[in-house]
TrEMBL record:
This protein may play a role in the biosynthesis of the prosthetic group of nitrogenase (FeMo cofactor). Residues 436-460 are annotated as: Disordered. Residues 19-428 form the Nitrogenase/oxidoreductase component domain. This is Nitrogenase iron-molybdenum cofactor biosynthesis protein NifN.
Length: 460
């Protein structure tokens, strides 16, 4: 059984995790016409904004209540009200997602009551705009928890309650934060190939997919629609991807009685088969020929690639669900997890990670534990550790800012698993040195005894 090792340092050395409010903001960015609003100081928002822009290479509509010293002491309700009303007046968003930060949370304010009072007091001015609160202090959790809290708040605040008439072809998909734009697009195409209608919440593939709008938009210009979130209760099935999405899926079930299925990963043949089988059962249709062909391609990739993976040692640092996704993939290919480092111990999925131990820590821990590994797997902040150790780095997660196209990398279902196999195998092949005559024949330049070197045969 895997051992979960707690943090051993008072300070982070080359931090691994990103904060809860950043994860909540990322979820709100997956809603059409939305603006995430950080309730805290300008510095908190600026830091998150820099990370978002470097990762996505896009304009990010992230705003702040800009609490100052007075608001920190006396309370920030007035700043929150002013920010919400100003955003409504200037940009008319369909949704304002309020993400609390450590500055406001430490003071212990009742944010839910503040927002309820603002809604009543400014009802006429805020008509047509949803205001959703996610309690996400920086000092607890990480990006994974922030994302899950935001999705839970969206469902709790917007979705209609009660058992509603079901649409037999409609399914709700609650993706984990670690699914890329390409993953979500591929999921949608796969679900639609069964003649089903997917409603993905949140859907960053519509808002952060690298397209250029034909006009300036002050809010997100794509993603899940607020009206679709309101009608999630009409879905015949909910599919949650990642252990951290269990809570919003359970809330949806409690409010609307929509059943849910949880997939802790969609990477690998076994998990992809389970997902495809569920779609076939819901739709009552056979698996399309195109999906079967992609499965056959994955089988061939497994045969071609497993020679390069056998007995390789992998060191991974990632959020809990992404750590589980990647670790199970590598172990399934014949690798050994030499080091597993994650951000928090709040996820039950850590007990299923196929490693001897999981360290709650930072990239300094990854560097210490990963010495001697064949591959480091983490985000771009791990590049210095990889350079010092002389180990190749596979960039995953958030942020990835020193490579282009990270959001268009496919990692799920048959095609995504196939692409992962090729990517990793090519890294291993690039690291391998070509054989030389000296390595093939270690006796090529051996010294001969004098009596043999003087013989006629030696001179031939």
């Amino acid at each position: 059984m895997v051992r979960i090792l707690p943090k051993t340092k008072a300070a982070a050395v080359n931090p691994l995790k990103s904060s809860q409010p950043l994860g909540a903001a990322l979820a709100f960015l997956g809603i059409e016409g939305a603006i995430p609003l950080f309730h805290g100081s300008q510095g908190c928002t600026s830091f998150a904004l820099v990370l978002f822009v470097r990762h996505f290479k896009e304009a990010i509509p992230l705003q702040t209540t800009a609490m100052d010293e007075v608001a920190t002491i006396l309370g920030g309700a007035d700043h929150l009200e002013e920010a919400i009303v100003n955003l409504k007046g200037r940009t008319n968003p369909k949704l304002i997602g309020v993400c609390t930060t450590a500055l406001a949370e430490t003071r212990g304010e009742d944010f839910a009551a503040d927002i309820a009072n603002i809604r009543i007091k400014r009802a006429e001015e805020l008509a047509g705009t949803e205001v959703v609160l996610a309690n996400t202090p920086d000092f607890g959790g990480a990006i994974e928890e922030g994302w899950a809290k935001a999705v839970t708040s969206l469902i709790g605040s917007i979705t209609r309650r009660g058992e509603l008439p079901r649409q037999s072809n409609k399914i709700a998909i609650l993706p984990g934060w670690n699914l890329t734009v390409a993953d979500l697009e591929h999921l949608r195409e796969t679900v639609e190939s069964f003649e089903l209608e997917p409603v993905i919440v949140p859907d960053v593939s519509g808002s952060l997919d690298g397209t250029v709008p034909d006009r300036w938009v002050a809010t997100t210009y794509g993603g899940a629609k607020v009206d679709d979130i309101r009608e999630l209760g009409t879905a015949v099935q909910c599919i949650a991807i990642g252990e951290h999405m269990r809570c919003p899926a359970e809330l949806l079930h409690m409010l609307t009685d929509v059943p849910y299925a949880l997939f802790q990963s969609l990477t690998g043949l076994k998990d992809a088969d389970r997902f495809i089988s569920l779609l076939s059962a819901i739709s009552g249709k056979p698996v399309p020929a195109g999906v079967r062909r992609r499965r056959a391609q994955l089988q061939d990739a497994l045969l071609d690639g497993h020679f390069h993976f056998g007995d390789k040692k992998i060191a991974i640092a990632a959020e809990p669900d992404q750590l589980y996704q990647l670790a199970t993939f590598f172990v399934g290919m014949g690798c050994e997890i030499a080091a597993a480092v994650t951000t928090t111990d709040m996820s039950e999925v850590l007990e299923k990670v196929p490693a001897d131990q999981v360290q709650i820590g930072d990239l300094g821990d990854l560097e210490a534990l990963g010495a001697g590994a064949d591959l480091l797997v983490t985000h771009s902040h791990g590049r210095q550790a990889a350079q010092r150790l002389g180990i190749p780095l596979m960039r995953v997660g958030f942020p990835v800012f020193d490579r282009l196209g990270s959001q268009h990398k496919l990692t799920v279902l048959y095609q995504g698993t196939r692409d992962l196999i090729f990517e990793v195998a090519n890294i291993f092949q690039a690291k391998r040195h070509a054989p030389t005559p000296e390595t093939l024949d270690p006796f090529r330049h051996r010294e001969m005894p004098d009596e043999l070197s003087s013989s006629p045969l030696a001179r031939v």
